């Protein structure tokens, strides 16, 4: 007797997202720690904005966040049949790509002492990797399913991390 598998996105997408998120959670728990510049336990009380590195990187970080979630989200909502889907799939793909890029770029650029050290610079680079995925997503919108978009992000981010690695 053959087993019948549901091909519905209502069944497969939540399962895939849950598996990927659990995998990412385990990877973060095992391999990721804060960078010295962002670790609150190691910070002194620096009130001078010129000496605090957060004040230098944060405006770039926010600008790229707005570009990723608002800019690309609204850009992908232009199609009549895929307006809401474009925005929702943008959020899904962007959040997964950023999380995956922190891990992948961490292994190639920010890995020392057995841990990936996460800071603002790492998150900013992860958002650039996410932008690469979303540009590809814009080219194939309406032709792929959300599962295919997640697989595309799963494959595209490591390639970006290798190409954008330390030179």
Automatic annotation (TrEMBL):
It comes from the Eukaryota. Gene3D superfamilies: Ammonium transporter AmtB like domains (1.10.3430.10). Keywords: Membrane, Transmembrane, Transmembrane helix. Pfam families: Ammonium_transp (PF00909). It is found in: Membrane. The keyword S-adenosyl-L-methionine does not apply. One of its GO terms (molecular function) is ammonium channel activity. Its main location: membrane. It is a multi-pass membrane protein. GO terms for cellular component: plasma membrane. SUPFAM superfamilies: Ammonium transporter. PANTHER family: AMMONIUM TRANSPORTER, AMMONIUM TRANSPORTER AMTB-LIKE DOMAIN-CONTAINING PROTEIN. Belongs to the ammonium transporter (TC 2.A.49) family. Rh subfamily. This is Ammonium transporter Rh type B. The lineage of its organism: Eukaryota, Metazoa, Chordata, Craniata, Vertebrata.
């Amino acid at each position: 007797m053959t087993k019948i598998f549901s091909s519905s996105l209502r069944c497969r997408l939540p399962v895939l997202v849950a598996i990927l998120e659990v995998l990412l959670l385990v990877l973060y728990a095992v391999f990721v720690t804060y960078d010295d510049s962002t670790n609150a336990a190691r910070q002194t009380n620096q009130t001078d904005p010129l000496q605090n590195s957060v004040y230098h990187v944060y405006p770039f970080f926010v600008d790229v966040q707005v570009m990723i979630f608002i800019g690309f989200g609204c850009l992908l909502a232009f199609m009549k049949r895929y307006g809401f889907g474009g925005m929702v799939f943008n959020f899904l793909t962007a959040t997964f790509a950023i999380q995956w890029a922190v891990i992948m770029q961490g292994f190639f650029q920010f890995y020392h002492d057995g841990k990936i050290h996460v800071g603002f610079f790492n998150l900013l680079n992860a958002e650039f990797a996410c932008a690469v995925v979303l540009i590809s997503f814009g080219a194939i919108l309406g032709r792929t399913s959300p599962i295919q978009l997640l697989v595309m992000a799963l494959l595209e981010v490591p390639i970006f991390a290798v190409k954008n690695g330390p030179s």
